[in-house]
Amino acid sequence: MVPRPRHWQTGQRPDGQEYAGTSLHAPATEENAAALRHLRTFGFRRGFLDDDFRLARGPGEIGGCFCAVHRAQFLRVFGYAPRCWEELCEDVQARRLTPLLRAWLDFTCDELTGSFRAQRRAFRGDLGIMVMYLGAEKAGIRLGDYRRALFRVGELMFDDDSFGPVKGKTDELFSALFHRRFASPDRAFSETTAFPATRLSARNMAAKLVISTLADVRHTMLMSGLTPFPREHWAVLGPAMRDQTCLHEAVAGHRPRGPFKHFWGDAQRLVGGDQPFSLWLAAGVPFEVVEELPSEGWTFLSDFDAREMADRGEEGRGTRLVCRAASARRLVGGEAVAESLPDLFAFKNRIRDKLGRVPHVVEAEPAVCAWYPTAGKVVVWNLAEQPRTLTVACGERHREVRLGGLEAASIPV
Predict the structure, then answer these.
(1) What is the pTM of this model?
(2) Using CA of residue 17, residue 105, residue 186, residue 212, what is the dihedral sign?
(3) What is 254-276 written as a DSSP string?
């Protein structure tokens, strides 16, 4: 192992623990900018900063470097008294969304954005950021700052153990849909990672391509570290790429619509653990991504958004708020549903009469149903590993679609 150069400083957690990487001290930005400037001389015009370009050690962690240097800078820039530092560390520990913690995250995001912009200027090319799974402001990534950059939507499930369960697939789809709020389709990239290279089956790698189709991510990066994918993977991946190309062309540029609302709010982005309430995506009811609470449908809240709204006594204002049954807070006028397939299928049964002419999967089988009314299409993704015949109801009309394991197909509606 190559030793860390002595002039590279470590980061520090609120508890004083030191760690290497994912913190910014001089000359990190300067050295990276010099490397990018050098790459430019070889003719490179596009580049990506890996998803370690963040100021948190991993998903769900409230980041920033809590060393003495950053502490002094933060207190000076925002005019806080030294006693506020201990209060900030307590807010981080308790994940309290206070004005003090918001200021810290602004400070952290300013630092990371500044570093990115300096490196982009040095590169004089198209520089992109590989955003980690559900990466957001808590990790120093102010997503709005990267709207015009190449943007890798965050993925996490890099092996069959993590991606194989239905929940693994819906978590990854949830993250991709969230990040697409900040990236245009032509600037959006997926990272279909297998690590180690043999730990993600070809079948599951092909299933990841469906996520890109559903989220309208136009570019795919296949990554496996330093080891190539097994050669036999390509017998599966080649046909899957051709199938997804055709399917994607049918819905590209059209937004999915539906009564189930995909929402990841400020509380989740700033202080929440990255544990999305995502399994409802497998209930077979169409959905759409929202940035604010809508005026209709059912909006699914993960735990920290639910906590914030419950503490404020906020109601849905037209939409029905749905949180996990295990949530520590109860929503005013909301509903609690366990994040399990039987409970979500029971929930779908209870509201079926309210769906009207919205197309949806009839069976209690795990499937994603994405409705693109402007394209006149529904895309159904079978999340089971076995073949299934699924029925799509649209009012009184019913259409059957036969799908192989983890296969997706479109039908006209």
Answers:
(1) 0.96
(2) positive
(3) PPPB-SEEE---HHHHHT--S--
Question: Going by C-beta distance under 8 Å and a sequence separation of 6 or more, which residues neighbour residue 400?
Answer: 389, 390, 391, 392
Residues 198-220 have pLDDT tens digits of 999 999 999 999 999 999 999 99
**Token pair belonging to 191:** 């990272």
* pLDDT tens for each residue of 292-348: 999 999 999 999 999 999 988 888 789 999 999 988 677 888 999 999 999 999 999
- Residue 94 to residues 61, 262, 305: CA-CA distances in angstroms? 12, 26, 15
* Alpha-carbon gap, residue 289 to 292, rounded angstroms: 9
CA distance 310 to 320: 14
Name the amino acid, one letter, at 75: L
CA–CA separation, 288 and 123 (whole Å): 37
Report the alpha-carbon distance of residue 19 to residue 65 in Å, rounded.
10
At 273, list the tokens: 């653990």
222 closest CA partner among 155, 125, 307: 155
Please tell me the distance from the alpha carbon of residue 118 to that of residue 97, in angstroms, as a whole number: 30
Distance in angstroms (rounded) separating the CA atoms of residues 98 and 311: 13
Q: Which two tokens stand for residue 23?
A: 């913190």
CB-based contacts of 42, cutoff 8 Å, min separation 6: none
